[in-house]
Amino acid sequence: MLLPEVYTHPSPGHTLLPHLLPLLPYSLPLVRRLQFHLQSPHAHVLSTLAPDAPTTTPPPPFAALYLDRSRAPETECWLFSTLELPTTLQPSSNEKAALPHLLAVLAPIPHLPLPLAYPRTQPPARLLCGAIHRSVLQTLAGSPIAPDAGKKVISGPSAAGEWRGSAGGCVRGHTVAYQKFLFRPAMVARAAGDEEEEEAVLAGLGLAWTTVREGEFALVASRTEIPRSGRTMRLLGSVGLRLRRRRGSTEGGRGEDEDEGQLVAWAFLGPDGSLTSLHVEPAWRGKGLGKLVTRRLFGLLGKGGGASGFGDVGVGEEWCHSDVATDNMGSIGVARGLGGEDGWECFWGWVDLGEVERMGRGREG
Prior knowledge:
By secondary structure, the chain is an alpha+beta fold. The chain contains twelve helices and 15 strands. 42% of the residues are buried.
């Protein structure tokens, strides 16, 4: 069987998003990655859907990806396949067609030019894909993923040996399962309108809203196991809380509060629109600050997306999401307490592009 034809989408907002938006929330990670305000000159968008393909319900089987190899050793690729859709939305031939479509969009990657920023320590045949739906990972691996398989972190210096363990097929290692929590547009819209109530709570605690400053990126990185560079944090929308510091006085003799004190809580919206690096310093836990920060961050997206780094987020499309390790009961409680609904399990995984090419040749032979 020949692999499907693959098409580049230089203007995915016009040619690919019209196919993906009706499939929300299942297409959410790739939708947000395409909507992210800062698109790299090294980015490529590939799909087995032609740029002029008409939108249909249900859609035909297809796969699509966003690729930016200049982001290595962080996540380089986001994949979507119609295999991820609920059975009622899937085309009839979807399961059988899924692997050829996935191989088809991955196969051209080795033939694309590598950016100068690509790390010399990472062989070009290694591709780190993010937020991979369990069904897609199992299709690429050629076998089910065991419930207890994988590592918490598979990228960065501490995970240099993860490539050696093959999960089968073209998969060469993956994380533990992360539960995808979904936050509906109505909840995000409510979060955008709760500023007065939040301000009263924060005033009582002596805290003020802020963003994370560049000089604080090292602090953020020190509080998480997930590798994230300063260059990435610089691009992302963030929300933080810091102690108000008394500085001088106003003409009336009253002290003037300025939000220049210690950062005590923070979170970012990742380039795929997911809640990222949520943290509350130990001395400030138990006060609901994690929920306040999350609601504030989601509220930015509910105001149209621009303030959070995402454009063209239409009314009714303001879905938000969070990926939580299935053994992280504290973060799971926060997500559910905010109204998050269980979506699906996802993984970060290494894909062997050389094996992709071999598997593709085998199907064509």
